[in-house]
Amino acid sequence: MIHIARESRPLGKYPPEVVAEGLRSGRFLPTDLAWQDPMPDWVPLANFEGLPETEEPTPEEPQGENVADPALLPGVGEPAWEHRHEVGIFRAFRDTLLGIYGNPQRVFSGLREQGGVLSAAGFLVLTATLSGWIALGYQVIFLKISPQAREELIKTLPPEARHWLMPGMVVFAVLLPLMVALSGLISSAAFHAVLMLLARVPVRFERTVRVYCYAWGAASILQLLPMLGGYLYPAFAAYLTVLGLRCAQKVPARVAILAVFIPLLICCGLAAMMPQISSLLAASGAGGSAH
Fold first, then answer.
1. Quick one: the chain helix, strand, coil %, rounded to 5?
2. Can you give the pLDDT at residue 37?
């Protein structure tokens, strides 16, 4: 059976003879997408090979049980953000979030094999920046209404940096879009490097980048939850990334888990070691100046 889709919407699955007749009669368009097992991706009907030549009349339309489930078809159900120029930015933004939170398997399975990186990066920068600004606003409000918490935070800073707490937050807010974009590129590269080492099937960097952008962009909305958002955001983002890599790159779950958590654990380890490294560098510098 051959699955047919038009404009990201499944039309159903049909025998090759029906598809050939439908293409001849105009029922199906040359630009309609076709897929059958074990093909890796969808192709336009005009390029689909192996269709028989037939003049038989077109059979009746398939009933509901013959209509393919979009969640099971690769290439169907890609993020609505990819079609924002047709449906509008606000609707595409809303539908993308609803799709990722409601049926992430369908969204990530529908990612195209090539292209769309800049579009996905735009979604990440937009959502992560806006939610990050709001989370930073929560922090500023909390420090304003809780002088004790503000004093405790100031004590953790070096003496020369204590007067730069609020200006530092402003600089952080200004640079946040750039930091989001750079962290997305670096993290995607790290995840993909591990994926290439462990996967037994070809994997594409574009898909890894898009998985990261949509996973972490959608999860960043959780930062809007006061207090809990900062903890839920990275945990849910990691879960979505694992799920996205498994669906988009067609790799086993254990490979996707390792591809995400090995770089994350390395980063956490380096972050934990930074105070010790800073102390050693400071001590080394003090010793050198003493001589």
1. 70, 5, 25
2. 79
